[in-house]
Amino acid sequence: MAAAESTLLPIASLVRREIIRFVRQRSRIVGAFVQPLLFWLFIGMGFRASFQPAGVAGVQYAEYAYPGIIAMVLLFTAIFSTISVVEDRRQGFLQGVLVAPVPRWAILFGQALGCTLLAVMQGALFLCLGPLVGAGLSLESVLAAGVAMVLLALGLSSLGLIIAWRVDSTQAFHGLMNLFLLPMWLLSGAVFPASGVPTVLAWLMRLNPMTYGLAAIRRAIYFATPEKAGAAPGFTFSLAVTLAFSFIAFAIALRTAKSRPV
C-alpha cells in the first residue's frame, strides 16, 4: 500500500504541475483553442463550394473536417505540451525528479498523462461544437469519442516525449516536430479521405497511426448515422490500433528515458 502511494503521488504531482503551468500561460490557452477554430472556419468556408469529400455523400466540407480539427487539437496540444521536458532539463527540475526514489516509468507516465489530459480537455471543447455543423451527438457517441481521444492523445504525448527526451533545445524540438506533425495530420484523413487518392498516399495513410485514431473519433461521432463516416475504418478496429500505438509509443518513450543520460 505504501509503495503504491509512493508511486501514485509523484504521478499526480507531475500531472498537476502540467495543468497548472498550462492554465497560467494564457497564450497557450488561446493558441490551443483559437488557432484550430480559425483554421476550421477558414478551411470549411474555403472548400465549401468547391470540394465534396469523396465517398461521403450529403456531408458539407465543414462537417467532414470537424473530426479532423479535433484530431489537430489533440495533436498540437499533446505534442507541444511535452516541450516542458526540454525546459525542465535546462532548469534542473528534471534532474531533481530523477534522483528521487521514484521509478522512471512513473515519472514518464506522469508527464504523458498530464499532456494527455490537457489535450483531451481541449478536444472536449471542440466536441461540443458538433451540433453547429449537423453532427448529432448522443451520450454513447460522446463517451466513445472520449475513449478514442484519450488513447490517441496518450500515443501522441508519448511520441512527443520520445523526441523531447532526446533533444537539448526547444529549437531542435520544434524542428523535429514540424517535420512529423503536419504530414501526420494531413495523411490521417483529416483534410481529404483515402478514397481516390494515389496508391502511394493511400499506403501512407494506412501506415499512419493517426489515421485510426481519427477514424475512431469519426465513427464515434456518427454512431447514429454511420453513412456520414464514409469509408473510414471501423470503430473497434481503429480503437484497437490506436491502443496498440499508444502502448508501443509509451514503451519506446520509456526505453528512451531509461537509456538517455540527463
Describe the structure.
It contains 11 helices and no strands. It is mainly alpha-helical. The chain is elongated, with a radius of gyration of 19 Å. The model has no long low-confidence stretch (mean pLDDT 80).
CA radius of gyration: 19 Å
| Gap from first CA to last CA | 30 Å
> Which range best describes the helical content: under 10%, 10-25%, 25-40%, 40-55%, 55-70% or over 70%?
over 70%
- How do the SSEs run, as a string of H and E? HHHHHHHHHHH
Shape: elongated
Strand content: under 5%
Low-confidence stretches: none
Mean pLDDT: 80
Domains, number: 1
Question: How does the major sheet shape up?
Answer: none
Number of helices: 11
* Strand elements, count: 0
**Which structural class is indicated by helix and strand composition?**
mainly alpha
Task: Please give the structural blueprint.
Elements: H1 2-24, H2 26-47, H3 61-81, H4 84-91, H5 93-98, H6 104-127, H7 139-164, H8 170-186, H9 199-207, H10 209-221, H11 235-259
Helix pairs in contact: 1-6, 2-3, 3-6, 3-7, 3-8, 3-10, 6-7, 6-11, 7-10, 7-11, 10-11
Brief overview:
The protein is an all-alpha fold and 262 residues long. 74% of the residues lie in helices and 0% in strands.
